[in-house]
Amino acid sequence: MKPTYEPVIGLEIHGELLTNSKMFCGCSADYGSAPEPNTNICPTCTGLPGAMPVVNKKATELAALVGLALNCSINKHNTFARKNYYYPDLPKGYQISQYELPICEKGWLDVDAPSPYPSTLTGTRPEGRGDSLPPSGEGLGMRVRVRRVHIEEDTAKLAHEKNYALIDFNRAGVPLLEIVSEPDIRTVETALDYATKVRAILRYLGVNSGDMEKGVLRFEANISVRPVGSDEFRTRTEIKNLNSFRALVRASQYEIERQIKIYEDGGMVVQETLGWDDVRGVTTSQRSKEEAHDYRYFPEPDLPPLQFSDAWIESIRSRLPELPEAKTSRFISDFGLTLSDARFLTSELSLANYFESVFAKSKSSAKTVHSWIAGEFMRYLNDSGVDIEEVTLPPESFAKLIDMVTEKNVSGNNAKVVLADLLKDGGDPQEIVKAKNLAQVSDEGFIQEIVTKILSDNPKEVDEYNAGKETLFQWFMGQVARATKGKADPNVAKELMVKGLEERRK
Hints:
It is a single chain. Helices cover 38% and strands 20% of the residues. By secondary structure, it is of the alpha+beta class. It folds into three domains: 7-315, no CATH class; 339-432, no CATH class; 444-505, Arc Repressor Mutant, subunit A, CATH 1.10.10.410. It has a nine-stranded mixed β-sheet. The protein is elongated and about 95 Å long. The model is unreliable at 117-138 (pLDDT under 50).
């Protein structure tokens, strides 16, 4: 009988910090808006001899803020090290990073843990799985340990053209945060949930834009597989520079299955660094996997150790906002939302803030407000490519429209028309309803006349409905909507239509 396997996954997340200047010099860190390549540079970030680095204070504060958000301990005494290797994007031959004493370590993050991947495998519950998440039907709660959070400098940017490469030093030296998890993850879905939640935390803190298309947030997955029930850690591979959630999922799934096939064929996995070919959907070998000793770490001689006081650490802690999981719990307890609804709203801070602003101005339930935001509002954003932070619709106008539906002053379908106008051109929802003659009609006499005429004009459909073709009911309701231009109260129309069809059954 063939053994079944489970993956063992650890993630390294690299995020550029949103500072005005680079990590060790005064050059602008906004390389994306640089007029030309190699303009935001100086002797320090290009690695010229004799250049002396100076630590960026704000980057240090942001790194500590992230560490506290990830439940890490802050090392009051931490040091920088030289990570020695040569590559065209790092011409001085080393990267200033942190090794033995990082700024933060020994943290954790609670995530969801669905059934093990692939679905045909039967895995075991890894250590560290806790009960901190409420039952959701989306998987068991588990705790992924964060080994370390440390600061380093980003490299230059390479562009490969045929048989040569172009190098742009505008990105070289930009503050880079590395978040390293322990190998606690046992499913690709859990890895995705962990990565998604880390990105949300970084955005909530305002330390990273989360724009993976621009490369400011990148994932590296360390993956091995082992027989289910085993405690061993087998040979792992590292997939570098995954710049989207889709790439993280596809690359991890491919690598897990590749390694399982190697073991099932009697082979051995080679420890190596891999790239991900998104077009072909395969991992490709880049080089043999380095260990720490290969980098010949030693203390950075040009930078003194960082020394933090308890008061400084507490001042950083006081800057922590309400984080996504705490906000999710509050939305559930205060607003009566489901876990999935609350998590959708808190996935982005701007979305959560907009929801709360609309709800505060509305007389409708939180569930109703959520439905409008998750439905028509998000559909508009997705179709138009507009970011929520660019929306000009005032929360009070949106709340007024939602309340008009709740109070049956306008139908849901017509309210969608009004919302489209509000999002595009602004205005007052009541004035738009009046100008377009969209007010909902609840007068039973008026609607009864429409229903009676429709039933009289369509005897064939009435007979088919009464013979058992109940799907025709929606067709009848559509005729009412058409005849009244969507203004008939759907509840009144439904009640009268049911009564009218029943009478003709007799």
